[in-house]
Amino acid sequence: MKKILVACGAGVVTSTSAMNKLQEELAKRGISEDKYTLGQSSVAQVESLAPEYDLVITTTQYDNDAIKVPVINGLPLLTNIGIDSVIDEVIDKLDL
Predict the structure, then answer these.
(1) What Cα–Cα distance (Å) separates residue 42 from each residue in 20, 56, 62, 79?
(2) Residue 44 is part of a domain; what is its CATH number?
(3) What is the per-residue pLDDT across 8-17, written as a single tens digit (0 to 9) for each?
(4) Is 8 a catalytic residue?
(5) Does pTM surpass 0.70?
(6) Active site residue: 4, 6, 8, 26, which one?
(7) Which of 5, 2, 3 is CA-nearest to residue 59?
(8) pLDDT tens, 47-93?
(9) Which residue range(s) make up the domain with 89?
């Protein structure tokens, strides 16, 4: 099972919206929730939590060379602009 961390500024509202959209879009592509788990955090917590995950999705710009797992900009999960490419990238990076 793949683990995805979804992070936003405070780790509550925006990341919840992004997680819901991610689940919806993955389900549309036939990927069941038993293939992945989701975690939620603030961007400030990403560096300490990232080693426990296979992929990090942030709703804000995030660059940190200390992170050894892929980090995807998840802003399209909120705006619906470019969402297909984000979902493609999630599927590709996790080999779902």
Answers:
(1) 16, 11, 11, 19
(2) 3.40.50.2300
(3) 988 889 999 9
(4) yes
(5) yes
(6) 8
(7) 5
(8) 999 999 999 999 998 888 889 999 999 999 999 999 999 999 999 99
(9) 2-94
Nearest alpha carbon to residue 20 among 67, 62, 80, 69: 80
Cross-strand partners of 55: 4
Which among 74, 72, 11, 76 is positioned nearest to 43, based on CA atoms? 11
* CA–CA distance, 80 with 46 (Å, rounded to integer): 24
How many domains does one find in the chain? Answer: 1
> Which tokens is 84 given?
């297909």
Question: From CA 57, how far away is CA 15, in angstroms rounded?
Answer: 9
